[in-house]
Write a structure and sequence with these properties.
223 residues; Methane Monooxygenase Hydroxylase, Chain G, domain 1; 6 strands; single chain; 2 domains; Archaeosine Trna-guanine Transglycosylase, Chain: A, domain 4
Length: 223
């Protein structure tokens, strides 16, 4: 797939778009309605970026997700509901336009290679921690399960089914992205995973975050 060298950028406070993920969005701001209209008339792509934590102004994080609009429905009130599929991590370059919406130059970011033995061990540790984390949730909502189980998702599905679905994600980097997007509640944690290219480092971050999540959920506090 040919990726553009610039794209419109939607900035949200706590939402991320990982490669391969599917994100439903409701578009209601006038500037983003215009961005959606332009995207649908063009290559159907735009970026989703988290606003920089602590910034009093709108300032996107340097690393964002580039997405493809798969489905878009305009409502009678002018708002739209759409489904955006992540296709690449991108580094945002200089803004070439600010109004009515931001357009930035973008550079696709490819994952970096890592030690296979270490990565395999980190994958197993990640799955163990996901198992522990999910077992602390009384009922798994269908909204959580849908990205893993598709149309078969329903509340009350066993944790073992979720783990089996995760094990089918053959790429360790993709696994880290899936787990981060579904399990990590802290947007800063998710941003760190998004902007980490080296797969081994991405998994190390994820294991650290999941360890804290399990400890907190079990009443033991963080590290």
């Amino acid at each position: 797939m040919d990726l553009p060298d610039r794209a419109g950028v939607m900035i949200l406070g706590s939402c991320h778009l990982f490669p391969g993920s599917v994100l439903p969005l409701r578009i209601f701001e006038p500037r983003y309605r215009r961005m959606l209209e332009d995207a649908l008339e063009g290559n159907r792509m735009f970026c989703l970026a988290m606003n920089q934590p602590g910034s009093s102004r709108e300032r996107p994080c340097e690393v964002a997700g580039l997405g493809m609009i798969r489905v878009s429905h305009q409502n009678p009130d002018g708002t739209s509901n759409l489904v955006l599929q992540g296709i690449s991590r991108v580094r945002l370059g200089k803004a070439v336009k600010y109004r009515p919406y931001r357009i930035h130059g973008i550079e696709p970011m490819a994952p970096e290679e890592a030690d296979t033995v270490v990565v395999d061990a980190l994958v197993e540790r990640t799955l163990d921690l996901v198992d522990a984390r999910l077992r602390l949730v009384p009922t798994l909502p269908a909204s959580f399960l849908a990205p893993l189980l598709g149309a078969n998702a329903k509340s009350g599905v066993k944790v073992v089914d979720c783990l089996a679905a995760l094990r089918k994600v053959g790429d360790p980097g993709a696994l880290a992205d899936v787990v981060a997007s579904l399990v990590l509640p802290d947007p800063v944690m998710r941003q760190i995973i998004l902007q980490t290219l080296r797969v081994e480092d991405r998994l190390r971050h994820l294991v650290h975050f999941l360890t804290s999540e399990v400890a907190e959920a079990s009443g033991g506090g963080g590290e």
